[in-house]
Each structure stands twice: as C-alpha cells, then as structure tokens.
C-alpha cells in the first residue's frame, strides 16, 4: 500500500474521525475511515502512536482461583458486555496510576499487586490507532458501584467453572476478554 493522504472528517470530545487514502499494489485507490484519540493527525508518520492511550486490567484474586470481570452496558452495541476493567490514561498520568484509578473507579477494588505488564498493543486495529497497555495483577477490597454516572457496571469475581459456563452460553464478551477467559478457564495453571 502506498499512502496518499489523510483528511480530518469530524472531531469530538474523545475521538476524531479521519479518511485515509491509499494506492493499492494494482493501482486502485482505497479510502479507509479510522478514528483516533489524536485530533491533529496530518502525516503518515503521525498514524503510528508512540505513547499509550489506555490501560486494560486483567485481575485475579490472590489465590488465582478467580478472575475479575465487568458486566458493563456498552452504548455502542446497546447491550451489556463482559469486559476487563479499562480506561484512558489522563494527560500526565503514568499507566500504573491509571491502572489503580480505573480499577477503583469501576469496581471499588484496590490493586494490591502487579504481576506483569504487557507491552503496548493496538486496542481495535481494524478501526483505530489507539494503543493500550495490559496490567496483570491482583486486587482486594469490597465491590462498589462505578464512580461515573456515564458507566453502568456490575463487577464481580468469576471462577474457572463460571467462566466456562459464560463462554458456552455465548454471553456477549469483548474479544480480548473472551480470548483470555477461554485460555484461563481451560488451563491447568497459568503463570501470570
């Protein structure tokens, strides 16, 4: 693909919509719409994100017998979906601070241990250039409603058996959450 140009179509509070124009190997022109957290993309080089936009939390109990899932109303699909706690990193905030803040805001739990941090990855590579970092850890505390009026979340711990049942019932999952849950629920033990 040969990049030809970019046009800003619409800017809102959290995302900006762009149209990218490419020339294919056969010489055809391809228009491709994306969204981005960056409201000022003007060049091809600016499509590649060199910072982290969001944090995703894969949280287990201290005995690794349960995984934390949010059942959250997602406006884009008009239904509830199972997902890991996640959120945007505020300007000037470190991902580790965002992880603690987002976990507490969405669930009322406290991040007590970080087991591993996965490097930056794309959140939804088919439609946007947003990147996220995955924090794998442990949490404790009492569940509490989300601190945001804009989020409707029911957080709880799930055992492997409960996760297997959710997967078999075809509950609505976010894709990354579904993939991890299947691997975890069918493993004999994971070193996370």
Task: Give an overview of the whole structure.
The structure is a single chain. The protein starts with a strand and ends in a 7-residue tail after the last helix. β8 (110-122) and β9 (131-140) form a beta hairpin. It is globular, with a radius of gyration of 19 Å. The chain has three helices and ten strands; from the N terminus they run βββββββαβββαα. It has a four-stranded mixed sheet with strand order 7-4-9-8, covered by helices on one side. It is an alpha+beta fold and 192 residues long.
- Write down the secondary-structure element order: EEEEEEEHEEEHH
> How does the helix and strand content classify structurally?
alpha+beta
* Uncertain segments: none
The strands making up the biggest β-sheet line up spatially as 7-4-9-8
User: What is the count of DSSP helices, taking H or I runs of 4+ residues?
Assistant: 3
N-to-C span:
38 Å
- Give helix % range: 10-25%
Amount of beta strand: 35-45%
Radius of gyration: 19 Å
Number of strands: 10
Mean pLDDT: 95
Sum up the overall morphology in one term: globular
Largest sheet: 4 strands, mixed
């Amino acid at each position: 693909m040969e990049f030809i140009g970019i046009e800003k179509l619409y800017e809102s509070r959290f995302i900006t919509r762009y149209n990218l124009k490419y020339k294919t190997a056969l010489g055809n022109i391809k228009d491709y719409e994306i969204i981005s957290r960056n409201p000022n993309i003007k060049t091809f080089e600016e499509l590649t994100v060199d910072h982290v936009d969001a944090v995703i939390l894969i949280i287990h109990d201290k005995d690794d017998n349960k995984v934390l899932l949010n059942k959250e109303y997602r406006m884009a699909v008009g239904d509830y979906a199972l997902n890991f706690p996640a959120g945007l990193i505020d300007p000037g905030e470190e991902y580790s601070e965002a992880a603690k803040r987002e976990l507490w805001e969405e669930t009322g739990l406290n991040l007590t241990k970080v087991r591993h941090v996965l490097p930056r990855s794309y959140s939804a590579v088919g439609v946007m250039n947003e990147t996220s970092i995955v924090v794998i850890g442990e949490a404790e505390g009492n569940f509490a409603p989300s601190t945001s009026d804009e989020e409707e979340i029911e957080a709880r711990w799930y055992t492997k058996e409960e996760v297997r049942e959710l997967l078999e019932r075809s509950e609505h999952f976010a894709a990354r959450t579904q993939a991890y849950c299947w691997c975890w629920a069918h493993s004999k033990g994971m070193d996370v």
